[in-house]
Amino acid sequence: MAIRYQQPADDALIAEINTTPLVDVMLVLLIIFLITIPVVNSSIVVSLPRQDIQPRETRPENVIVSVDADGAIYWFETRLTSPDQLAGRLALEAVKQPQPEVHIRGDARAEYESIGRVVFAAQQMGIERIGFITEPPAR
């Protein structure tokens, strides 16, 4: 005795696209992008020294000079090939009114001389406000 299944006559093909999996994938991608964006805020890898800090407001007109572990100097994200380039750029910033602050991101493994050259160049060009960017100590 064989049992036969008969499809009801009122079943029609559903011609709609199921968007639920698409929405799920889009939400997962959105969460991944929101998590990874803060990680990609600076492309120059430096190990910042740990120090108690006082939070300060970072303004877009502030100048960020980075010194990596090898002593290479960066103006924001651009590597400078000579100390004359740094002096020239600092001289242009020194004549602006109001004068921007120079923030130095020095790698903790860098020699003091490399960071000292940046501070000395800023002082010689007439920069009045120099600050160091550090990380808060681990608690």
Give structural notes.
- With 139 residues, the protein is an alpha/beta fold.
- It has a domain at 59-72 and 96-139.
- Helix content is 30%, strand content 14%.
- It has a 5-stranded mixed beta sheet with strand order 3-2-1-4-5, with helices on one face.
- A hairpin with a 5-residue loop joins strand 1 and strand 2.
- The chain is elongated.
- The mean pLDDT is 82.
Write the layout of secondary structure elements.
Layout lengths: L19 H17 L26 E5 L5 E3 L2 E3 L2 H12 L7 E5 L5 H13 L5 E3 L7
Parallel strand pairs: 1-4, 4-5
Antiparallel strand pairs: 1-2, 2-3
- Radius of gyration equals 28 Å
Beta-strand percent range? 5-15%
Tell me the structural class: alpha/beta
Give the % helix.
25-40%
Descriptive terms for the model:
139 residues; 5 strands
Provide a compact summary of the structure.
30% of the residues lie in helices and 14% in strands.
